[in-house]
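Page 37, continued from 36.
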């Protein structure tokens, strides 16, 4: 079977690897260099216990407060895209307790084999910097600590790993240099983190060893030819394939628009820095909760990542916005001084209005499988998404928990689509 995977990020490469391992003839096509963008520019966390949907109770109130701050972790930029307003309205409708808990339940089910699948990848030969030293969430307000503790209790009940709520004194014993304003912490001892650039590079190497062809610098879109067959345009000539996998991240909606589908996927811009490894965070990853900043101690640098910006797919870097990540750390660490001349990077995360990824076949085009909308979980959910994509492409039944992630849940946003027979 010939399979074309559109998108060479973490999700596309994990899908290609799973397909090639089962004997498919796979070609991965990306408009950019393979493994770049948000797949390499992220915190590198593998965190099933922190996989809650972005739409959550209280988000609207907090968002309104943040909108007035030029360095806030959440912002909305003016956009000419008429779909952005409807997307944001739909996202706000999902900020209820009932929908949040339903989404969390679904994401925890999707995550139930996350660590096992990463271990399998390493056993098959993937080599990348990988840490199993856990994660600590830091809090400056008791209200925030209590709220996250309640969420973690629900996560634990849904199959998540154990956690420990710490007092300010115990948190200070765990991490040197903490500010006295830190009121406590939550330790998740089994969560992991890795170097995302090394991870996707290892995926590329492993894919190529299995015969996967990787084509860079080619932007593909899907449409139907005169007899109803799905073809991909954008290459030197139209491409046909037995099956297409759309894993183009924030660009996925544009790939399938020519088939009559309006996928509600918008980009959520994140910023980050790689600073010298002198940050007093120890061996664990840490989350500066109120600032929404992830801190990852890698071997050659300390990575700091955060912000969520809506408003198109521009990758222009707002330096003041990005530097809010650096300055926020001073609220948590007394000894922290932002490095001079730190260079920010950015990545566009694919967001959905209900906070869950889209994984499954298009309802009227069964030879097109979509795998996008993973938000900040493109690393965490990469291997399991690849496994589900392979099952979809080869026509095997999906696990019961996977049905809620199908693209048909957004069917009312699709234009009239003529069913075709394959």
């Amino acid at each position: 079977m010939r399979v074309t995977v559109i998108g060479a990020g973490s999700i596309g490469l994990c899908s290609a690897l799973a397909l090639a391992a089962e004997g498919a003839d796979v070609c991965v096509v990306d408009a950019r260099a393979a493994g770049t963008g948000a797949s390499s520019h992220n915190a590198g966390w593998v965190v099933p216990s922190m996989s809650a949907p972005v739409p959550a109770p209280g988000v609207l109130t907090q968002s309104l407060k943040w909108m007035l701050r030029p360095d806030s972790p959440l912002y909305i930029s003016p956009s000419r895209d008429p779909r952005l307003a409807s997307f944001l309205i739909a996202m706000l409708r999902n900020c209820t307790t009932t929908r949040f808990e339903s989404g969390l339940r679904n994401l925890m089910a999707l995550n139930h084999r996350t660590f096992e699948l990463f271990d399998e990848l390493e056993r098959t030969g993937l080599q990348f910097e990988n840490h199993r030293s856990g994660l600590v969430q830091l809090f400056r307000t008791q209200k925030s600590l209590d709220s996250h503790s309640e969420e973690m209790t629900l996560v634990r009940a849904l199959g998540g790993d154990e956690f420990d709520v710490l007092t300010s004194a115990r948190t200070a014993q765990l991490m040197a240099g903490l500010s006295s304003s830190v009121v406590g912490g939550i330790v998740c001892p089994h969560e992991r983190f890795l170097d995302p650039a090394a991870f996707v590079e290892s995926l590329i190497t492993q894919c190529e060893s299995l015969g996967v062809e990787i084509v860079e610098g080619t932007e593909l879109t899907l449409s139907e030819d005169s007899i109803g067959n799905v073809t991909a345009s954008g290459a030197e000539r139209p491409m046909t394939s037995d099956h297409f996998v759309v894993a183009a991240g924030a660009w996925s909606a544009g790939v399938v628009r020519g088939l009559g589908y309006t996928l509600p996927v918008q980009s959520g811009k994140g910023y980050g820095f790689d600073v010298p490894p002198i940050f007093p965070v120890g061996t664990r990853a840490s989350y500066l909760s109120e600032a929404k900043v992830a801190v990852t101690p890698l071997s050659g640098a300390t990575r700091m990542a955060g912000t969520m910006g809506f408003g198109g797919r521009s990758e222009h870097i707002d330096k003041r916005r990005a530097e809010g990540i650096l300055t926020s750390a001073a609220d948590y660490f007394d000894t922290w001084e932002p490095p001079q001349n730190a260079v920010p990077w950015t990545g566009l995360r694919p967001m959905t209005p209900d906070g869950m990824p889209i994984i499954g076949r298009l309802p009227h085009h069964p030879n097109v499988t979509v795998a996008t909308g993973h938000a900040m979980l493109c690393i965490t959910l990469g291997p399991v998404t690849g496994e589900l994509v392979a099952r979809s492409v080869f026509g095997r039944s999906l696990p019961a928990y996977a049905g809620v992630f199908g693209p048909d849940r957004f069917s009312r946003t699709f234009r009239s689509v003529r069913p075709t027979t394959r």
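The first helix runs from residue 10 to 21. Flag for discussion at group meeting. The first strand starts at residue 2 and ends at 6.
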